[in-house]
Write a structure and sequence with these properties.
This protein has six helices and two strands; from the N terminus they run αααββααα. The protein has helices at about 5-25, 75-80, 100-105, 145-150, 155-160, 175-180; strands at about 130, 140-145.
Length: about 210
């Protein structure tokens, strides 16, 4: 038997490897559907209750949004205030099963009056969107839209007692919001809950 040269041996080894791989591809039985492992995409966003975003200003856990761990006592109370009893057919609801009041206005199901006083002419809705940049790299920015808010509110309801009208003057944090401050004055009480994050955090970074 002739000895293989180094180059020939490398060629022979590679050919043998290809043959083995090809053979195994055709001889192995297909995996059952239950055996297939689906790789979940990795995420670098906050996923656990120990992350800073879920801590209150006192450093203790404020809750992290699951039904068993609501974000705040205000939210626990708010779940009882939300009009879940209004289950009439045709009323739009969000993913939590709560009435989507903004959609009801957009679809002309209801038309809120501008004033309870007769003869007061209604003002056109304020078309002003404000981008609020978040501090975290993996948390979408907030696009605050005035229009759906002025369906129900007058400017004086929020300005200047809750929100200053100067840029960069409102130093908000999620810890404060879940405690009922800033946006938490309504959200989690009479408006959609804070756990519906993407309703506000809708603008991706970059």
């Amino acid at each position: 038997m002739r000895m293989l040269t180094s180059a020939s041996k490398q060629y022979f080894d590679r050919a043998l490897l290809v043959l083995c791989i090809a053979t195994s591809c055709f001889t192995q039985s297909p995996k059952a559907a239950d055996d297939v492992v689906v790789q979940k995409p990795r995420t670098t966003s906050p996923t656990g209750p120990d992350k800073r975003i879920y801590l209150g200003t006192d450093g203790k856990q404020a809750g992290w949004g699951s039904p068993e761990h609501p974000a705040s006592e205000v939210f626990r109370i708010g779940r009882g205030i939300h009009p879940e009893a209004l289950s009439l057919p045709g009323l739009p609801k969000d993913k939590f099963g709560l009435i989507d009041w903004a959609s009801m206005v957009k679809k002309n199901i209801i038309t809120p009056a501008g004033s309870l006083q007769p003869g007061i002419q209604d003002k056109p809705p304020l078309e002003l969107d404000i981008l609020i940049k978040t501090k975290g790299d993996f948390v979408h920015n907030v696009m605050f839209r005035h229009k759906p808010h002025v369906y129900w509110l007058d400017c004086k309801n929020c300005h200047p007692a809750i929100f200053a009208m100067q840029k960069a003057k409102n130093k908000m944090s999620m810890q404060q919001i879940v405690q009922g401050k800033w946006c938490g004055r309504c959200h989690g009480k009479v408006s959609f809950p804070l756990t519906d994050c993407k309703r506000c955090h809708s603008q991706a970074k970059n």
